[in-house]
Amino acid sequence: MTLLIKSTLSHKENDKPIGIFDSGVGGLTVAKQVFRLLPHEKVIYFGDTGRYPYGPRSQQIVAKFSFQNTNFLLKEKVKFIVVACNTASAVALPQLQKHYQIPMIGVIDPGAKAAIGTTKNRRVGVIGTVGTISSDAYRKAIQKLSSGIKVFSLPCPLFVSLAEEGYIDKKATRLIAEDYLSPLIKKDVDTLVLGCTHYPLLKKVLSQVMGEDVRLIDSAEETAKEVRIFLEVNKLLRESKGKAYHKFYVSDVPDKFMQVGRRFLKNRIGKVRRIDINRY
Amino acid sequence: MTLLIKSTLSHKENDKPIGIFDSGVGGLTVAKQVFRLLPHEKVIYFGDTGRYPYGPRSQQIVAKFSFQNTNFLLKEKVKFIVVACNTASAVALPQLQKHYQIPMIGVIDPGAKAAIGTTKNRRVGVIGTVGTISSDAYRKAIQKLSSGIKVFSLPCPLFVSLAEEGYIDKKATRLIAEDYLSPLIKKDVDTLVLGCTHYPLLKKVLSQVMGEDVRLIDSAEETAKEVRIFLEVNKLLRESKGKAYHKFYVSDVPDKFMQVGRRFLKNRIGKVRRIDINRY
C-alpha cells in the first residue's frame, strides 16, 4: 500500500492528463484537434450535459458552473485545463485564471489571433451565442492585439439547436443563416469567426451564405495548436510515446452525448461516465 | 412575536398559494390560464431557468430537478402543485405523487382528456420534446381512458428554440414544421396534442401545415380547468375575493425570463426573484 502511494506521488507532472471542459458535446471539436495534434497525451473531457446550454444563461451562472467543472478536473489531477466552450471562455475564464494556480486557456484568444492573421480588409465578423456576444470578449481580444481592426458581432442562438438536431444541409437552416448573417454581409467583413464550438458543423451553409471570399475561422484547431505550444515551452509534454487514454465524463446519462458526439468526433466515443457535478 | 407566529399558524389551508413549476418560461402559458380562471388565487411560479431545457435530458435528471422544484414550493407553503412542464409531467409526476402528500397535477392527463373529447376519427397525433415523447406518457394516458384510439407520437425538438427566439411567422419555421409533421399528416390524424408548453406560440404555422380540419389541443387551458375543479371539490378555493399576489422565482438571473415571459403572458411580469435551486 505504501509502495503504491509512493509510486502515485512520484508520477511526473508531465505524465498527468490534459483536462478539457465544455457545456456539452460542442467542445469535442476542440478535443478532436487535441487528439490529432497531441496523440500521446492523456485527456479527460467533461461535458456538462446536465446543465447545457451555457449560451443563453447569465454570466453569474456560467461562472458558477465553470468553477465546478474546474474543481472536478483538478480532482482528476490534470496538468492543464482547456475551456473548450466559447461562452465559458468569454464570461468566466478571467475569473478562473485569477482563482486557480493551474494553467488554463480558452478558445477566444486563439480564435482572435487567427482572425487577425487572416483579415486583409481589417473587417472581422464574429458570431456566437448570446452569452459570448454580449460579453464582447472577441472584440476586446482582437482589438487588444490590433486596435485598428473593425469587429462586428452578432448572436445566432438557433445555430446550436440546428447543429445538434442534424439540420445541416436543410433549406430552413439556409434561410435562418441568411436572416442572421445579412447584417455582417452588409458590413463587408472578409473574415468570420465561428465563436461557438457547434458552428463548424454548419460551415458549408455559412460559407455559401457569406460568399466564397469570406474566410471562416474555427477556433478549435487554433486552440489545440496553442495547447501544444504551451506544453512544449513549459516542458509539460508527456514523455511516453505509448497509447494514451481519453476519458469522458458527463453530468447527465451518457446516451445522447455518445450519439451526438459521434457527429462531432466522426467516430465512436469509448466509455462515458456520469458524475454529479453539483458535488464539486 | 408570539402573536405573529400564532396568526401565521392560524392561516387557513385555502388561503395558501397555488404552486406552479416549469423548466423555464413555457409554463407561463399554464400560469396565464390559472390567473384567468382563478383570479383570486395566490400563485407562486418557479421557472428553472438555470437548468432548462428539460426536453432533451434523461428521465433521472428531470426527476431529480422536479423533486428539488417541489421541495422549494413546499417550503413556500403552497396548497397544491401544478407541474406545468410536459417533460416533467411525463417522466417525473408519478414518482412525485408517490413521494409527497400534497395534491399535484401535471399537464398530460388534461391534454389527453381533451384529445379524447375532440377526435372523431379516433386518430390522435402528439408532438413534444424528446423526453415527453420517449416516455410515451400521452399515448398511455389516452389509451387508459379510451383504448380504441390510435395515437401517433413525434418529437419536434427544434420548436422550443424557434418559439423562444420569436421565429413564429418565418418561412424557415414553416419548412421545419412541414418536415416534422409530414408523418402525422400521412397518418390522417384529426386531432393534434401540443405536448409542450412552447408549442402554442407556433399554433398558426402548425395549423397551416396540418390543415384546417385538424384540431390542435393546448393543454394549458385544460390544466387550469382541472385545477379549478380540484380546488372547488376539495373546498380549497381561497375565500377572500381581494387581489391575490403572483410571485415569480427563477434559478438564473431574471432578465431573460422577464423578457421572454412577456411573449407568453402578453403583459409585464412583476418582480422576479432568483433562488439557488440546488439547496432544495
Helix content of chain A: 40-55%
Number of strands of chain A: 10
How would the global form of chain A be characterised? globular
Number of helices of chain A: 13
Biggest interface and residues each: A-B, 28 and 28 residues
Strand content of chain A: 15-25%
Oligomer: homodimer
The string of secondary-structure elements of chain A, in order, is: HEHEHEHHEHEHHEHHEHEHEHE
The largest beta-sheet of chain A arranges its strands as 4-3-1-2-9-10
Mean pLDDT figure of chain A:
92
Structural class of chain A, by secondary structure, is alpha/beta
Radius of gyration of chain A: 19 Å
Compute the separation of the termini of chain A in Å.
Answer: 28 Å
Poorly predicted runs of 5 or more residues of chain A: 1-10
Largest sheet composition of chain A:
6 strands, parallel
Q: What attributes does this structure have?
A:
homodimer; 280 residues; alpha/beta; six-stranded parallel sheet; 13 helices; 16% strand; disordered N terminus
What would you say about this model in short?
Chain A has 280 residues and is α/β, with parallel strands linked by helices. The first copy, chain A, is built from 13 helices and 10 strands.
